[in-house]
Design brief:
Chain lengths: 452, 744
């Protein structure tokens, strides 16, 4: 017996050893590992089908989307991506044991693309299987990982791969965190599902994949998931402060830029009217210390950490920032502000066949630049009255029939006024800001665009 | 009984005598049938058969034949050729070998053969003489007529007069139509009375004898038409050719070829600046230059102010020499300009101008020289010409109409004096109309200008606009402005603004969408929302209606700029509006310093504002630029419309990136077009030349680059510019280290 077992183990080892170079301990028996790991997490994988409401196509439209999630606590907390449950009005979840439950949102964070849900218990003290969040910091390239979820709606699927890159910076997306790049097959539907290691721990939440170019996928590291979900659990959102300082690394091969220093991070610029600007920071400054903590970003991989540090500063509390400018060091007082909403609210104007949205400093910086408080056209329906009249997406509405428009309520009031049947109006004059210039457009809504 | 017999016999004898001598006995009354009977044998028919000559068609108008059909339209002769049909005109027998008919005014080179038919017999004819004072042409038959009666004329016979004219009937036959010459047919023109009759016609006196023949539409109502046509002043074809050659010879010394070279409009970045028809104007134009003596040349070319500003060179060809011309100014109302030659041209001689008034020249035989130049080739066609009509037209003046085409036509009298020159009227200024604007010069036409009128115009300095002249490339891009951005007005919008009537339902006018600070419009108090209807240009009756067309607003892809590959940078249009729009273009055409009266609707009320057109501040297309080859960056000064687009303060530093060379250091460093560079190595830069000074030395550069409100640091490392080498002394010898010597 023992002899047989040893031979079997060796056989497996040999087979595996000849195939791949394995890094971490415990990767000896691929098949056993896969099975055991799967067994630990599989029951906790959730198939999520939310009904989301979108205003993007010029009208308020509900749509069912598909994604995945993972239970992280016995009482039914589910971690998934923000983009799976964004603007959801109802969320249905299917567990691997066949139970299906509604879920409610505990909290979401758009910037890290994470959301925390809670399943609605059907019986009191109902228990759910859950997975354990592991340590993503010890992951390294070559480690075996598995992605679980529902690619293309095919729930209860598992794919196998390795860590292609343990710390990947994705420009435009990696505001506060890095990603784990993997080659396990990820497809639409896998979003929000767990990425597990050979020990059956959740080391990431699968989020992104390239649509062209083979099996390249990205997962949010468990480290990030842990800190974000604890914030969501406690406050329903992640509280961040905002300083308005954009950063650049010391060495940038992509843009062939190398600053002559080994420590610190370069200030790319400060946003208008931002705490960073008020503190007196200028672009080109090299920040070496924030609130006593040394900061460095040699390459872009280190940028999220610095940003995360900045966002974790206490709002309205002054911190000392040490920077170097032109060979001399200086210390400034930075007073961060609370980072407000990162996206504006939306409103549907059905008879006008368009949707409008509040201009938000973070979501619409270019529009915000033109008008700090205002409304813009988010979606235009084709065919539709707004489209026919020559209104375009991203037009900033400044007035409707001479009524100044600053908030969604203003639009609602103007809309109700115009469409009120006793008024018998069929046209309104909309003044918009487009490309920096005002245009006056007559919005004729005499026609009702309805599907036959 | 015997008495009666004698009378009858005498009558018969008289009758026979009358017949034998061929003289006509008067018809008892001028009734149609007796006239026909009396003159049928004297009236025949001429058939002119045409051909192409040297690839040219006879073309153009021919005022011949009966007056009530449409023989005088374009292409009639061409259709005759295609049908292999002759032009048929009535003719009168003057001698047994000479007939008179109305000259079809087709140059002889297009006439293949002429056939004449009298009383059923056909004869071949050749042109013999041209009448000098009317449209008569005398043809010589190849043999005497075998049957036919020669006409005899009695100038003394009095009226009331009857007109007998040949009318083309059916079945290839001419009918004789008879009618009284009534007072209705008299017209007064230029103080003189004329008779208008159908042609060709015989005028018969009260006894039915022929008094005279008429072959021109309008004949002076004096007695000059009476009598035999054989007594008319006439010029043989040979003599006419001699006069023509003399006139042509004079033109060789006076009408010279001018080559005008224009700067090209084809530039990728200049597509906005030039309108559609400007882009299609050629870069080389050939024109006729009339030497006026005293180093002056009148160049007959119709160029707009903007075209003229693009002139790079203008040369006069004289023999082998190419002499440069300098423009002094353009005629205000006509498409021609006066230029000065910088070298002498011995052998050139200006043409002698005739001072005979137009009315005196009506119908007279003239020499027509249709002259144009194509590079060195002189395209000249000499033909006989007549002024068949004088009508009032442009500027309320009387203008002569030649029988042929007025294009390129110089007219000379039989003494070789210049009677008229071809000149175009200046087209009225108007705005480019819209997506359906097909361009092209419309509103201008070629006139035949009497020489004496041209002399008057040239003599008055006020007729010359000296502000129309060639400009350097930068200066030619300067625009006149009011400081407005306009938006198209639609019918609904016009209604919403209660301006349907003044804007003619949204057809005319545009809404002011923006007023630039400190611009002329701003100072006049024009506000966004006002409607700009039209403006009035002095010297032009027709106002310039303001019409703008809306193109689909292009949204500059600021958010996706990082994803645009650098090879496509040059295709990115600019996010700020081009300051060269239909309004500024038309204002520039009016000219700097000119006054216009602009009509606005402001707050529902009409408002007239007078503006003196100023030069706009430099805009992006004409801004100072600096190209740094080492980095691949081209930057430009930030001009007012770019500053307004980026909402930059007046004193905020920055230069705008105009171009990035694909694959260059700047491209690798991630700089994109339309980004703003505010500082180099910490030093703010406000102008392209500041940037040049900062960047030229080379080395490690840290640029502060802004995209809208976000800035970042971009580092580029450029090769060090070479240090200027110090002059080494001729001989370098070691200085002695003797302490007595001191170093200089």
């Amino acid at each position: 017996m023992r002899k047989t077992l040893l031979l079997f183990a060796l056989f497996c080892f040999a087979a595996v050893a000849s195939a791949q170079d394995m890094a971490a301990a415990g990767d000896n028996d691929t098949f056993r590992i896969i099975t055991e790991a799967k067994a630990k997490v599989f029951p906790a994988v959730v198939f999520i089908k939310p009904i989301v409401q979108s205003y993007e196509r010029g009208e308020k439209k509900s749509q069912e989307v598909t994604g995945s999630g993972v239970l992280v606590s016995q009482d039914g907390e589910v971690v998934t991506n923000f983009h799976v449950v964004e603007k959801a009005v109802s969320i249905r979840c299917l567990l691997s044991d066949g139970r299906h439950r509604e879920a409610e949102i505990v909290g979401t964070d758009k910037e890290t693309d994470l959301a925390l849900l809670r399943l609605k218990r059907e019986v009191a003290d109902e228990m759910f299987p859950y997975a354990v969040l592991g340590d993503s910091t010890i992951l390294t390239e070559g480690n075996f990982v598995m992605a679980m979820g529902a690619p293309w709606g095919l729930n209860r699927s598992v794919s196998l791969g390795i860590v292609s890159c343990a710390e990947r910076y994705i420009p435009g997306t990696s505001e506060y965190n890095l990603f784990i790049q993997i080659d396990a097959s990820l497809n639409p539907g896998n979003s929000g599902g767990p990425l597990i290691n050979v020990d059956g721990e959740v080391v990431g939440i699968n989020s992104l994949a390239t649509t062209s170019g083979g099996d390249i996928g990205f997962a949010i590291p468990a480290e990030t998931v842990k800190s974000i979900t604890s914030e969501l659990r406690a406050h329903g959102k992640v509280r961040r402060s905002w300083s308005g300082i954009s950063l650049q690394p010391l060495k940038d091969f992509d843009q062939n830029m190398y600053f002559d220093a080994d420590t610190g991070v370069i200030v790319a610029g400060t946003d208008p009217d931002s705490p960073g600007l008020r503190a007196g920071l200028k672009n080109g400054d090299r920040i070496t210390e924030i609130g006593g903590a040394a900061v460095t970003a040699v390459t872009d991989v280190e940028l999220p950490a610095v940003r995360a540090l900045l966002s974790s500063l206490e709002p309205d509390a002054s911190v000392k920032v040490t920077a170097w400018r032109g060979g001399e060091s200086l210390v400034v007082d930075l007073v961060p502000r609370t980072k407000g909403k990162v996206e504006g609210d939306e409103l549907d104007c059905p008879r006008w066949n368009m949707t409008v949205k509040t201009i938000n400093q973070f979501a619409n910086p270019d529009l915000y630049f033109l008008r700090q408080q205002g409304i813009f056209i988010f979606g235009i329906k084709y065919p539709g009255n707004a489209a026919q009249s020559g209104l375009q997406r991203n037009d900033i509405i400044t007035s409707i029939d001479s009524r100044p428009i600053l908030t969604l309520d203003d639009v609602k009031a103007a809309y109700d006024d115009a469409v009120d049947s006793t008024a018998r109006k069929t046209k309104v004059v909309v003044e918009v800001l487009r490309g920096g210039f005002t245009r006056q457009i007559v919005l004729d809504f005499a026609r009702e665009y309805k599907a036959d | 009984m015997r008495m009666q017999f004698t009378v009858i016999l005498l009558a018969l004898i008289f009758l026979a005598a009358g017949c034998a001598s061929g003289a006509r006995s008067g018809a008892a009354a001028n009734d149609p049938s007796s006239v026909r009977e009396a003159f049928a044998a004297s009236m025949g028919e001429v058939s002119f058969y045409f051909k192409y000559d040297d690839g040219d068609a006879p073309g153009s108008r021919s005022s011949s034949g009966g007056s009530y059909d449409d023989r005088s339209n374009y292409g009639y002769t061409e259709s005759l050729i295609n049908n292999m049909e002759p032009l048929r005109v009535g003719a009168f027998l003057l001698t047994d070998t000479v007939v008179l008919t109305e000259d079809p005014m087709i140059p002889l080179r297009f006439i293949d053969r002429i056939e004449v038919t009298f009383a059923g017999s056909k004869y071949v004819a050749t042109p013999d003489k041209f009448a000098v004072a009317n449209h008569g042409i005398f043809l010589r038959l190849d043999r005497p007529v075998s049957s036919g009666t020669v006409l005899e004329f009695d100038a003394a016979e009095e009226g009331p007069y009857t007109v007998a004219y040949l009318y083309p009937g059916r079945d290839n036959r001419f009918d004789i139509r008879v009618g009284p010459l009534s007072a209705d047919q008299l017209i007064t023109f230029g103080g003189k009375e004329y008779m208008r009759t159908p042609t060709p016609a015989l005028v018969l006196g009260k006894s039915g004898h022929a008094v005279g023949a008429i072959v021109s539409r309008s004949v002076p109502a004096d007695d000059s038409w009476k009598g035999s046509p054989l007594s008319w002043p006439a010029l043989s074809t040979v003599a006419f050719e001699a006069r023509s050659n003399a006139a042509a010879a004079a033109t060789r010394a006076a009408l010279l070829g001018v080559t005008i070279n224009l700067r090209s409009t084809q530039s990728r970045r200049n597509m906005d600046f030039y309108s559609m028809d400007e882009r299609s104007t050629p870069t080389e134009i050939q024109a006729v230059g009339m030497y006026l003596g005293d180093s002056k040349v009148l160049v007959l070319a119709d160029l707009s102010r903007r075209d003229t500003s693009r002139i790079e060179a203008m040369t006069l060809a004289f023999g082998e020499k190419r002499i440069p011309l300098e423009i002094e100014g353009a005629l205000r109302r006509y498409g021609a300009f006066v230029a000065r030659i910088t070298e002498d041209i011995p052998g050139a001689a200006p043409l002698a101008f005739s001072d005979t008034v137009m009315e005196e020249l009506l119908d007279r035989l003239l020499v027509g020289d249709a002259l144009s130049y194509d590079v060195d080739a002189r395209d000249e066609q000499i033909r006989r010409e007549r002024i068949s009509d004088i009508r009032d037209g442009f500027l309320g003046l009387y203008w002569p109409n030649p029988t042929g085409s007025a294009a390129d036509l110089f007219l000379f009298d039989l003494d070789g004096k210049l009677v008229a020159v071809p000149i175009a009227t200046r087209e009225p200024i108007q705005m480019e109309a819209g997506p359906n604007y097909y361009g092209g010069r419309w509103g201008s036409s070629t006139l035949t200008m009497p020489a004496y009128r041209l002399a008057e115009i040239l003599a008055d300095e006020a007729n010359l606009d000296t502000s129309v002249k060639p400009l350097s490339e930068d200066d030619s891009k300067r625009l006149a402005w009011l400081g407005l951005e306009l938006q198209e007005i639609s019918r609904d919008l016009a209604r919403a603004k209660d301006a349907s009537l003044p804007t003619k339902g949204g057809e005319v006018g545009a809404i002011v969408s923006f007023v630039y600070k400190d611009s002329p419009a701003d100072k006049a108090g024009v506000k966004p929302g006002d409607i700009f209807l039209r403006f009035y240009v002095p010297g032009q009756v027709r106002p310039v209606d303001v019409t703008v067309y809306s193109k689909r607003d292009f949204e500059f892809p600021w958010a996706q700029l990082d994803r645009v590959a650098d090879v496509y940078f040059e295709q990115l249009p600019r996010p700020w509006p081009s300051r060269s729009n239909s309004l500024t273009k038309v204002l520039t055409e009016v000219g700097f310093g000119q006054s216009v009266s602009a009509e606005f609707i402001s707050d529902g009320k009409k408002r007239m504002i007078d503006f003196t057109l100023e030069m706009a501040p430099t805009d992006f297309s004409s801004a100072d630029s600096y190209q740094n080859a080492a980095s691949g960056l081209t930057v430009k000064d930030i001009t007012y419309e770019v500053r307004q687009y980026f909402k930059m303060a007046e004193d905020a530093p920055g230069v705008v990136v105009a171009e990035i060379e694909p694959g260059s250091k700047a491209s690798v460093a991630g700089i994109k077009p339309c980004e703003v560079i505010t500082a180099v190595n910490g030093q703010p830069v406000s102008l392209a030349r500041d940037f040049k000074a900062a960047v030229e030395p080379g080395g490690e550069l840290a640029l502060t680059v802004k995209r809208m409100s976000q800035s970042r640091v971009v580092k580029i490392s450029l090769p060090q510019a070479e240090e200027p080498t110090l002059e080494k002394p001729e001989s370098v010898e070691p200085m002695a280290t003797d302490s007595k010597l001191t170093t200089p």
